[in-house]
Design a protein that fits this description.
Shape: globular
Helix content: 40-55%
Order of helices and strands: EHEHEHEHHEHEEHEHEHHHHH
CATH topology of the largest domain: Rossmann fold
CATH superfamily of the largest domain: NAD(P)-binding Rossmann-like Domain
Number of domains: 2
Largest sheet: 6 strands, parallel
Structural class: alpha/beta
């Protein structure tokens, strides 16, 4: 994993931005914005984390960084406010209400939500933003902690084209791809497609590895071979060898995946989709939670088969 400070950034005009939520994803994402030359104010529910971020990224070359005690104060001078928190309730808590970001934002400012939440919430916040003369983009990310650290995330966006054009060059500080996929909520729906795909891939890879090990094969060698053919995938390339080695103390946690799959299954009820494999894998992840693997990487599905 490369150091945040080593990325080379495309030149963009320096803006006043805020970043709300400094978890495993938000902390490096906000760091990339600072390293790209933007004036960043951060807010985190645990104030010590915001202070640690400020200590790491403030320097004589980048003195215009700050932390704020509320989302409202973080957002009050920002051209763009970025947010990356846990679930629908968390997003509402930092955007709405008297101390939420919307209450402090300047007219015509833009809020970009990188949280993985419901499409319904994205549409709700889009409407709330426009009622206040603000703009809103839902922009969940894919690429995990390594993608955030390396500035190589994929952003799936929903909202208005004009607002997207404002945020896209700024967000490329921590992204390798940033695409507008439709109206408000489209980003969250695309993230659901992403999670459906990953769930099925990981279950198939888990079964393949368990089968090969039971058959007495050298699975490290087998994965190297099949990774050059039609079975190749990001999951095989990046998780196959660690699955063989029974290593799962990293990456995207099972608890997070279950939250995401819950959003998927609720949306499927609304739009009439049949997702039998996704529903089954969701229950397999529940098994992993009962095994004590709430914080294990999502590739830990293979442990059920051992």
């Amino acid at each position: 994993m490369q150091n945040i400070h080593s990325k080379i950034y495309e030149p963009t005009p320096s803006l006043k931005v805020a970043f709300i939520g400094l978890g495993v994803m938000g902390y490096p994402m906000a760091g990339h914005l600072a390293c790209a030359g933007h004036h960043v104010t951060v807010y985190n529910r645990t104030a010590a984390k915001a202070q640690a971020w400020l200590t790491e990224f403030a320097s004589p070359e980048q003195p215009l960084l700050a932390c704020a005690s509320t989302p409202r104060l973080a957002a009050q001078h920002a051209d763009i406010v970025f947010c990356c928190v846990g679930n629908d309730d968390d997003v509402r808590s930092v955007t709405l209400g008297p101390e939420g970001a919307f209450a402090g934002m300047l007219p015509n400012a833009l809020l970009v939500d990188h949280s993985t939440s419901s499409a319904h919430l994205a549409k709700e916040l889009y409407a709330a933003a426009h009622a206040k003369g603000l703009s809103f983009i839902d922009a969940p990310v894919s690429g995990g902690q390594a993608g955030a650290q390396n500035g190589m995330l994929t952003l799936m966006c929903g909202g208005d084209a004009r607002a997207f054009e404002r945020m896209q060059p700024v967000a490329m500080a921590y992204a390798r791809a940033c695409s507008l996929l439709g109206a408000s909520g489209s980003g969250q729906l695309a993230k659901m497609v992403n999670q459906i795909s990953i769930a099925g891939l990981l279950q198939g890879l888990s079964e393949a590895i368990a089968f090969g090990q039971n058959a007495g094969l050298d699975m490290a060698q087998v994965l190297e071979v099949i990774g050059k053919g039609a079975a190749q995938s990001w999951q095989l390339d990046n998780r196959g060898t660690t699955m063989v080695a029974d290593r799962f103390e990293f990456g995207f946690a099972v608890d997070w995946m279950r939250k995401d799959l819950g959003l998927v299954l609720e949306e499927a009820k609304r739009n009439g989709s049949c997702l039998p494999v996704t529903a089954l894998v969701d229950q397999f992840y529940a098994d992993i939670q009962r095994m004590g693997g709430k914080r294990w990487d999502t590739s830990s599905l293979v442990k059920r088969l051992r």
